[in-house]
Amino acid sequence: MGKFLVRRLLQIIPVLFIISFIVFCLVFVAGDPVALMLPEDASQEDIEQLRESLGLNEPFHIQYLTYMAGLFTLDFGESFRYNESALPIVLERLPATIELAIAAMVIAIVIAIPLGIWSATKQNSPVDLLATGGSVLWKAMPNFWLGIMLILLFSVTFGWFPVSGRGTFMHLILPAITLGTGIAAEMTRLIRSSMLEILNQDYIRTARSKGIRDFFVINKHAFRNALIPVVTITALQTSTVVGGTLITETVFSWPGLGQLLIQAVNTRDMAIVQASVFVIAFIVILMNLLADIIYKVLDPRIKYN
């Protein structure tokens, strides 16, 4: 296990370098941000002078080598919009995104686990049809549409929750529901299918033949073994959650990393874009590593060679 973790940690380094190269290439071909930084009546001389001061007049390989040199010290450059180093700005917004992501995952787990188990134990019943149909419906709803509908209903019509912003627990509820319900829909279907497969195993029938109550058979024997694919999808949903926050944070004006990244893309603030994607990629990689560790805890038979 120790060797496996060391190997996985070492694999993070080339993956991050590949991601950084792809992001740099995309930002490079996106265009010159100098036009956005200067007024419309700026002279050509002013434009060239600013481009030279930012190093944007250099060839691609020179700009990339400069970027990589800064990457070793986690220096992604200076944001022209904020006139500050990019990474501290990104890290300042990160707690808000993590808060929203955790709240969304809690909502997804609270909904998906009991609903998935209940649906599997009541296969082909009205409860099962309602759960599976509801999960398909919720999964089909775009985040931005659901967020707007929640705002119109619970904020504008009833006035129960704030329309936007971050500050109190009430500000968190609608964005977390918007983000969490889509994840819950996918997790519910996976838990249901995983539980159905486990419930048909011989050891489950043996446990029931011994007179063990269904509650213990389902929760102690079946659900524990059904958790491994659930852990997989939860880890994979990390990227979905982070991607979902890009839209959700914009709809609810949530001051997190997603809103910052969209603003940076619109203004071609390259330093912020590169730092944001780097941080997001690092989080997703760590979550996948955590999933591998949880596999071992759930099933000691799993061996990492």
Radius of gyration: 24 Å
Helix content: over 70%
CATH class of the largest domain: Mainly Alpha
Structural class: mainly alpha
Morphology: flat
Write the CATH architecture name of the largest domain: Orthogonal Bundle
Beta-strand residue percentage: under 5%
The tally of domains stands at 2
User: What is the end-to-end distance?
Assistant: 8 Å
Q: Give the spatial strand order of the biggest sheet.
A: 1-2
Strand count:
2
Round the mean pLDDT to the nearest integer and report it.
Answer: 78
Q: How would you spell out the order of helices and strands? A: HHHHEEHHHHHHHH
Described by strand count, sense and barrel closure, the largest sheet is:
2 strands, antiparallel
CATH homologous superfamily heading of the largest domain? MetI-like
Put simply, the count of helices is 12
Model description:
About 80% of the residues lie in helices and about 0% in strands. It contains twelve helices and two strands, in the order H-H-H-H-E-E-H-H-H-H-H-H-H-H. The mean pLDDT is about 80. A two-stranded antiparallel ribbon has the order 1-2. It has helices at about 1-30, 35, 45-55, 60-70, 85-120, 125-140, 145-155, 170-200, 200-210, 215-250, 255-265, 270-300; strands at about 80, 85. It is flat, with a radius of gyration of 24 Å. The protein is mainly α and about 300 residues long. Helix 1 (about 1-30) runs antiparallel to helix 12 (about 270-300). A hairpin with a 4-residue loop joins strand 1 and strand 2 (about 85). It has two domains: about 1-75, no CATH class; about 95-265, Orthogonal Bundle (MetI-like fold), CATH 1.10.3720.10.
